[in-house]
């Protein structure tokens, strides 16, 4: 695994030494960031089920202002910190040491915190109901013009709608697929005419 482009291009990232963690392939990561390219510079990025940290680190390399990594596995948390240190990243990131969606609460949300890009890469064997619950919970953290990208097995369809999120695009590569979501704009409130 390596950083594909940007200031940290070519830096090698350490892979997990245990089973059960499936890093996004370099090819799929390149596809993802080719699509996201116009959005990355200056963006606040949330990397959920961060694993190795490769997605968030790629975003930082390409000019993201900040990356927040969420993972509940202590081994993954240590690996993210190690990969950030190896790349020389000292600021502009936070590692939330909690599982999703509990990790969202750990961000100390006050209704003002929002992300331009949310990257969601749960284990491929995660139950669909659990994934939908995370999609719905994280929707509140996405900026109005933001995007969520959900990586999942190609054989398992992603929902068209999850809470206020609406599917806008899907890209398949090998056994994996990337499904893109945008927040639905709130419906205009119906005003009752005054009877005065």
Could you characterize what this model shows?
The chain is an alpha/beta fold and 196 residues long. It has a domain at 51-183: Rossmann fold (3-Layer(aba) Sandwich). The protein has helices at 26-40, 54-61, 74-86, 102-106, 128-138, and strands spanning 44-48, 66-70, 93-96, 115-120, 142-153, 161-162, 165-173, 176-183. It has an eight-stranded mixed β-sheet. Helix 2 (54-61) links the parallel strand 1 and strand 2 (66-70). The longest helix has 15 residues, at 26-40. The radius of gyration is 17 Å and the shape is globular. It starts with 25 loop residues before the first helix and ends in a 13-residue tail after the last strand.
Strand order of the largest sheet: 3-2-1-4-5-8-7-6
Report the β-strand fraction as a percent range.
Answer: 25-35%
CATH superfamily name of the domain at 51-183? Vaccinia Virus protein VP39
Low-pLDDT sequence parts: none
Tell the overall outline: globular
Radius of gyration: 17 Å
> Mean pLDDT score, rounded?
88
SS-based class: alpha/beta
How many helices does DSSP assign?
5
Give the CA-CA distance, first to last residue: 69 Å
The helix/strand series, from N terminus to C terminus, equals HEHEHEHEHEEEE
Instruction: Give the % helix.
Output: 25-40%
CATH class of the domain at 51-183: Alpha Beta
What's the count of strands? Answer: 8
Question: Do you know the CATH architecture of the domain at 51-183?
Answer: 3-Layer(aba) Sandwich
* CATH topology label of the domain at 51-183: Rossmann fold
Major pleated sheet: 8 strands, mixed
